[in-house]
Amino acid sequence: MATRIVLSETGSAQVMQLETVQALPPGPGQVWLEQTAIGVNPLDVLQRKGGAPLPLPSGLGLEGAGRVTAVGEGVDSVQVGDRVAYATGPVGGYSSGRLYPAERLIKLPPAVSDEDAAALLFKGITAQYLLKTTYPVGPGSHVLIYGAGGGVGQIMVSWAKHLGALVIGVVSKAQSVERARAAGCDHVLVFDAATLATQVKELTNGLGVDVVYDGVGKVSLQASLDSLRVRGLLVSFGATSGAPAAIDVATLNGKGSLYLTRPSLAAHTRSTEEYQQRAGDVLAALASGIIQPRIWRRYPLADVASAHADLEQGRAQGALILTP
Fold first, then answer.
1. Which band of pLDDT confidence, cut at 50, 70 and 90, is reported for residue 123?
2. Are 189 and 168 in contact (CB under 8 A)?
3. Which residues make Cβ contacts (< 8 Å) with residue 274, sequence separation at least 6?
4. pLDDT digit string (tens) for 210-259?
5. Which pTM value belongs to this model?
6. Structural domain boundaries in the chain
7. Which single residue of 31, 49, 66, 152 could bond 35 by disulfide (Cβ 3.0 to 4.6 Å)?
8. Which residue has the higher pLDDT, 294 or 223?
9. Can you give the chain as a three-state secondary structure string?
């Protein structure tokens, strides 16, 4: 038997219900995975609240790690006993055991624990494509990263510094400043929509930054646009404060021929080859000490509501892990 979190409706954390299910034999191309660690991400909260639609009833969770205990027909990429992890759909990661497509599993090296993999892969692949594909950060790049003291933000800051960038981090409260500095920020600003762009311009000799990585959304949109240099890029990759307002195309022209993108992990991991390449880059960066998992707290799967509350209310100081 296995346990899993299911939602039959969207809403508050109370819509997440724990249920017992029978372990299923894997079909062609599938494995049965006994999970030992499960990652929690802002996207999970957005999906639970209905901001990113799911067909209901549905499971939840896109990141986990564990051991393969059964394989289906045609599976030759992994075998029973392999330690593996994953960082994409199908949803259903909030479970003690689950069926999962074998080709989307990432084999874990001995030095990487299950918890570290569950804490890092989804966030790490997100950071990887944002820093290396959405905008190729390199020596001399000036970047602005929101949530610099959070789970994704700390990874992005450390990696951007390794790539040679000057990093300005943004945090929501003064208590997060030192954590963002420890991750590698050259400058840390406490978010104030009215003053942020002016502060950024002062730190960049009036020019603005090359790229803004904005995972906040609604309340930060204008400040992000005003923080960019001429022909700069706004990367809106999250919406923790709600969806940002629509932007008139003429606004981009008036502010200096700006670029705007709303990327997703799914679009950057569509093929198995691309997905495995990005995951391999994340594990290599971990092995080299460029990035760290930075686990903040662990919760029993049955207490998933507390994990969501800590994430929603801004208490999380790093990655959150569920343990079946």
1. very high
2. yes
3. 268
4. 999 999 999 999 999 999 999 999 999 988 888 899 999 999 999 999 99
5. 0.94
6. 2-121+266-323, 139-261
7. 66
8. 223
9. CEEEEEECCCCCHHHCEEEEECCCCCCCCEEEEEEEEEEECHHHHHHHHCCCCCCCCECCCCCEEEEEEEECCCCCCCCCCCEEEECCCCCCCCECEEEEEHHHCEECCCCCCHHHHHHHHHHHHHHHHHHHHHCCCCCCCEEEEECCCCHHHHHHHHHHHHCCCEEEEEECCHHHHHHHHHHCCCEEEECCCCCHHHHHHHHCCCCCEEEEEECCCCCCHHHHHHCEEEEEEEEECCCCCCCCCCCCHHHHHHCCCCEEECCCCHHHCCCHHHHHHHHHHHHHHHHCCCCCCCEEEEEEHHHHHHHHHHHHCCCCCCEEEEEC
Q: Go through 211-244 and write b for each residue having 16 or more CB atoms within 10 A of its CB, e for each that does not.
A: bbbbbbbeebbbbbbbbbbeebbbbbbbbbeeeb
Domain 139-261 has CATH 3.30.70.120: no
Inter-axis angle of helices 304-312 and 42-49, nearest 10: 100
From the options 3.50.50.100, 3.40.190.10, 3.90.180.10, 3.80.30.20, give the CATH code of 2-121+266-323. Answer: 3.90.180.10
pLDDT at residue 99 in the model:
97
Confidence of residue 280 (pLDDT cuts 50, 70, 90): very high
